[in-house]
Amino acid sequence: MNIVDKNKFIKQHIELYGNELFFDSPSHFSIKSDLLNNSVLSIFESSVEDCMKCELGTSRKKIVFGSGDKNADLLIVGEAPNEYEDEKGRPFVGKAGKLLDKILKAIGLSRIDNVYLTSVIKCKTPRNRDPLLSEINNCHSYLLKQIEIIKPKIIVALGKVAGKSLLNKDLSLKELRSQFYEFNSTPLKVTYHPQTLLNDPALKKNAWEDFQVVRDFIN
Ligand code: SF4
Average pLDDT of 208-214? Predict the structure, then answer.
C-alpha cells in the first residue's frame, strides 16, 4: 500500500471508528501506532487550516497549529503566535524559540524528538495583545483534540496567560509555578515564557529548576 492509499485507508477508518484502529489479524487487538497518530493529527490540522471561528482568522497570514513529535511525552503550550510565527506558520521561531531549543536540549529533548509545540490560540492577535476569553474559548476545542491525539505525559504551559487559560484560574505566575496542576487529568506545569527570560535573564535559574522537574517527571 503506498502512502496515499495508506492515508486514505486511515482517514476512512477514523471517520468510521474515531482515533482507534482495529486489526483483525493475526489476532484481534487495537493499536495506536506512531503512524496512526501522525496521520490523525495531520488530517485534523488540515481540517482547521481555514478556520474563521473568530475575528483573528481574518487578520492572520498563517494559522500556527503546532509542530513537533506527534507522539511526544511533552506538550508545550504557549500563548499565541507572534508576527514572525504568523509569517512562518510555525510556533516558537525567532530568539525566544532559539532559547526554548537550548532549554530543551539541556533536558535531553528537542522540538522534533519527544516534544510537541503549540499554543492556546492558533492565530496572531493584533499588536500581540493577550488573547480575549472569547478567542480562547473558540480555539479551545483544537487544543483539546491535539491533547487527545498526542496523549502527552505532561503539559508545560509557558507564561501566565497560557497557564491561566488552561487552568481557568486567575493566579499569579508565582502561584502557577508553585505546584503541579492537572489539565483534563494530564499533569500540568507552568513556567516562564522564553520571551520573559530574554527580557529578564535573572529568571533563567527559576525556569531551569522548573524544566529539571519536568525532565525528572518524564524520565
Ligand atoms: S484563533 Fe483559533 S478559533 Fe480563532 S480563527 Fe484562529 S484557529 Fe480559528
Answer: 97
